[in-house]
Amino acid sequence: MVGSVNGVIFLSDDYFGNTYTYILWNPLVNCFIQLPKPRVCFMAIGPYMNVFGVGYDCLRDDYKVIRVVYPQRNDGLDETPPLAELYSVKDGKWRSVSAENVGFCTIDLDWSVCFLRGSVHWVAYERFGVEKEWSHKSNLLLLFNVEKERFQIMRLPLELRDVCPSSLMVSECQGMLCVTHCVLVDNMLTGELVEFNLWVKKEYNQLSSWSKFVSVDVRGRLHKFVHLRKNGELIVSSKDNELLSYDPETKNAVVLAQGCPSLYDACSFVETLAFLNKDCKKKRYIWDFVLCFDSLN
Question: Which residues form a coiled coil (predicted)?
Answer without folding.
Answer: none
